[in-house]
Write a structure and sequence with these properties.
With 371 residues, this protein is mainly α. The chain contains 19 helices and no strands. InterPro entries: DUF6136 (IPR045614).
Length: 371
């Protein structure tokens, strides 16, 4: 290829790079605007997510690096870190790949240009990997000798970002398999845990894709709601991820300051109520969409009642998990939490604009009265 041809190709690539970067910024701005449409609820949820992320950035990375004495806990923290990263990148996937114009781009540029820009924007978007890189640069030689698994962890962070873009099903399978690994009652070295992560994620890429929702007969209200959540799993995934973040944060804080258990219990209850009762917003939209259909089938009353069942079931599972795996809650706060969750469901249905305000006032009141 002549020098003129090389210069022309470089100029074309730069133009394409500028286009993708502008499209990336526009889509991120649109995503942020969509989130802002939730108003105060968005600020509450984002604030709670940021608190969990900041805590994981400063405490989680330290636990992952220095996990020789508690390898299983370090592996669990690494898994949670990878889960939260995957949730964040899944939300940004459309902006990273410029999915709306993807077919058009394939007609004007080479396929490897698309993937190269995907990787560049992926690295730009992955704040979790950037945070790990900053910590890695600060480690000295002796610390690296004690934490060779951190190199594999960073490799996993990058690889899971690529899986999120091109093999999302493999990512989901891998997260499930690695969750089982970190929960097994075994005691192995941190390096072995991370090698196991790599092997399980590699094997998950070989599994065939299948969809249970296509095989599920919708002949009852229970299967109707089950099919909805299987097809729109992200409404549950991001809530579960943030709840796990809260659980890990509370566990860490209880180990550091057991004398503040009452305060931590109220905070845990507040977030459990927030993330489970807010599911009603999604269920309410589905109810409004299909209420005429169920009314025509003389099931309007049952359908109206059924829209509250997913949030209630989600709350019971979350509360039971907290009591089993994190800490106990006093009976008074436990009873108040059940009533609080019911109140938030009512507000979400009747007065959605006041949902976040009621949650914050109730949280403040319980902190003032019970601590």
């Amino acid at each position: 290829m002549s020098k003129l041809g090389i210069k022309l190709e470089i100029a074309q690539y730069r133009s394409f790079m500028q286009y993708r970067y502008q499209a990336y910024k526009i889509e991120l701005a649109q995503l942020l605007q969509q989130l802002k449409n939730f108003g105060l609820l968005f600020l509450v949820v984002l604030g709670s997510a940021m608190l969990g992320m900041i805590l994981l950035l400063f405490l989680g990375l330290g636990k992952i690096i220095d996990s020789i004495d508690a390898p299983q806990y370090g592996a669990q923290m690494a898994w949670l870190y990878l889960l939260l990263q995957s949730v964040m990148l899944s939300a940004m996937k459309s902006a990273i790949q410029n999915s709306q114009q993807r077919l058009f781009q394939r007609t004007i540029v080479r396929s490897h240009w698309l993937k190269l820009m995907d990787i560049k924007l992926l690295l730009l978007s992955n704040g979790w990997l950037l945070a790990s890189a900053v910590i890695a640069l600060d480690l000295n030689y002796s610390q690296w000798l004690r934490a060779p698994h951190f190199v594999l962890f960073m490799l996993l962070q990058f690889s899971l970002g690529v899986l999120c873009l091109y093999k999302p099903r493999g990512l989901i399978y891998g997260l499930v398999f690695t969750a089982i690994l970190v929960l097994l009652p075994i005691n192995i070295a941190p390096l072995a845990y991370h090698c196991g992560f790599i092997i399980l994620f590699a094997l998950s890429m070989l599994l065939p894709a299948f969809s249970l929702s296509d095989q599920l007969p919708i002949n009852a209200l229970s299967t109707f709601w089950l099919s909805f959540f299987m097809q729109h799993s992200r409404v549950l995934v991001w809530r579960v991820a943030l709840l796990l973040c809260v659980f890990m944060a509370i566990t860490t804080l209880l180990n550091e300051r057991a004398d503040l258990e009452a305060i931590f219990s109220v905070i845990a209850a507040a977030f459990m109520v927030l993330f489970t009762s807010s599911l009603q917003f999604d269920c309410g939209k589905l109810h409004d969409k299909y209420q005429l259909f169920f009314q025509a089938n003389n099931q309007s009353r049952l359908f109206f009642i059924s829209q509250f069942m997913p949030s209630c079931l989600f709350f019971l599972i979350t509360l039971s998990s907290y009591l089993l795996f994190v800490a106990q809650i006093e009976w008074l706060l436990l009873s108040l939490s059940v009533g609080w969750g019911t109140l938030q469901l009512y507000i979400a249905q009747k007065k959605p604009a006041h949902y976040a305000l009621v949650w914050m006032i109730t949280t403040g009141g319980l902190l003032a009265v019970l601590t």
